[in-house]
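Summary of Year 1 activities. Much of the first year was spent building the evaluation harness for sequence design. The harness presents a backbone, in tokenized form, and records the residue chosen at every position. We chose the following record to illustrate the format because it has been used consistently in internal testing since the harness was completed.
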């Protein structure tokens, strides 16, 4: 019975009435106990000869034995079903079939409440409509106390933030989706059991479900696609920039071969030539960063203006790309600068 209590709870959520659930529990206990009584009588009858040999007399079966067995067969399953029905709370979560109001922390803060006892809600239109004894009941139009408060959580995309929410909880509210937490590696077993429960209660095989991971992945699918597009174009821009820098450096350094040769004749060392040829490019990169950083910040600011939750724009977000670009630029220029710093001045003068 303890192992099946979760199955009973699932059936209750799926709409099985309390009477139907109690009847099912009693029938299962009745069948199990009937099998036990039948097995006991079989053991007694088959071992009657052994008992007669031990006690040298026949033990008669009286009417009291039959009444005792019948009483146990009817009462034990009944008491067992009642015990587990009450023990595990297989009753309506809200007694009387009445609706109650539950708020989250953000809603409590928005309404200005700090204590649950002081919290009341009234709506200009009914929060729910029901019929009881052919009478229309409009819930929420009068001052209604708040029964509980739940912690804040994200209902959708993280950029939407945490919103104030009000929940209408009712004893007979069987509509909508049901959230079930499943242990790892037991997903298939749970799905099969849920299909079986739906088949037993509604006689239907139209059982649909979604995994929370799939819902979250679908929610952020467009963000992933956008990030992928930005990443691809960023790589393309870096490659084009490196090729352009390589072409410009090749033309510029070749044009300055005569100047480099004269400087080497006058005693310039390779490190002096590295600084001479590389500082102009590094200066241009720094100037480009000074222009691009504010523009990037403005673009990020307006792009995330509608986001309630957003990643902070830190200084490292701009410095790290600058360092990466500097390293790639130095690797691109190194071959040309190194070749120019080690040229033979005599060959340059001869060719000039």
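For this record, the design step produced the sequence shown next.
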């Amino acid at each position: 019975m303890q192992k099946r209590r979760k199955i009973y709870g699932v059936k209750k959520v799926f709409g099985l009435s309390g009477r139907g659930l109690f009847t099912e529990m009693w029938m299962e206990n009745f069948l199990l106990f009937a099998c036990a009584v039948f097995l006991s009588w079989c053991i007694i009858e088959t071992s009657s000869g052994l008992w007669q040999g031990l006690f040298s007399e026949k033990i008669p079966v009286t009417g009291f034995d039959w009444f005792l067995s019948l009483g146990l067969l009817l009462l034990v399953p009944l008491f067992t079903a009642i015990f587990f029905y009450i023990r595990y709370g297989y009753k309506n979560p809200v007694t009387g079939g009445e609706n109650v109001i539950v708020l989250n922390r953000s809603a409590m803060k928005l309404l200005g409440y700090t204590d649950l006892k002081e919290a009341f809600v009234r709506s200009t239109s009914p929060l729910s409509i029901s019929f009881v004894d052919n009478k229309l009941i409009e819930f929420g139009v009068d001052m209604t106390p708040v029964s509980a408060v739940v912690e804040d959580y994200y209902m959708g995309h993280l950029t939407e933030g945490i919103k104030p929410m009000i929940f209408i909880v009712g004893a007979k509210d069987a509509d909508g989706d049901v959230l079930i937490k499943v242990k790892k590696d037991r997903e298939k077993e749970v799905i099969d059991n849920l299909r079986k429960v739906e088949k037993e209660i509604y006689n239907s095989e139209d059982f649909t479900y979604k995994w929370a991971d799939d819902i979250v992945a679908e929610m952020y699918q467009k963000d992933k696609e956008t990030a992928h597009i930005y990443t691809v174009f960023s790589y393309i821009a870096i490659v084009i920039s490196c090729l352009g820098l390589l072409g410009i450096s090749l033309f510029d350094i070749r044009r300055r071969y005569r100047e480099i040769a004269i400087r080497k004749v006058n005693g310039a060392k390779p490190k002096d030539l590295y600084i001479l040829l590389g500082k102009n490019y590094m200066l241009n990169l720094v100037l480009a960063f000074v222009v691009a950083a504010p523009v990037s910040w403005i673009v990020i600011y307006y792009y995330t203006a509608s986001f309630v939750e957003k990643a902070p724009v830190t200084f490292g977000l701009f410095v790290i790309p600058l360092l990466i670009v500097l390293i790639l630029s130095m690797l691109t220029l190194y071959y040309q600068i190194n070749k120019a710093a080690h040229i033979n001045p005599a060959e340059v003068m001869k060719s000039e």
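The two ends are 101 Å apart (CA to CA). Quantitative recovery figures across the full test set are reported in Table 2.
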